[in-house]
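Give me structure tokens for this 129-residue protein.
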Amino acid sequence: MNSVLINFSGHSLNQEVIDELKSIYGELIDARPIEITFNDDVEKQIKGLVESLSIKIDGAFSITIIPPGQATFAILLVSYLHGLIGHFPNLCYLERTNSGIYIPKTEYQVQPQEIRSAGRKFRYSQHVV
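Here you go.
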């Protein structure tokens, strides 16, 4: 298994999209529906979500995620996954079509690790005398 796409969005993907994604990624996983409450231990909830997946996320293979729509939860989930694999997962943009179907835009993958590196480079350039 070289690469896995994990759909954390809560939106179902149609079969045509699933077939296309399976030709791009080694495996496609639909995470269980996300029900998170910030009144309870968020770390425990994220750990439970990750443990419910059919694979072990340990950095042994590349992962790309379709993040959840709730921004705070998406940030926390990406942070947790970074802790598990030692770098940011790639992110796949999910776009709603006119017919209401959500289509992953695989040609436009966001690579947070590159953005992080650019921020570091900028930070270091600001300290040059």
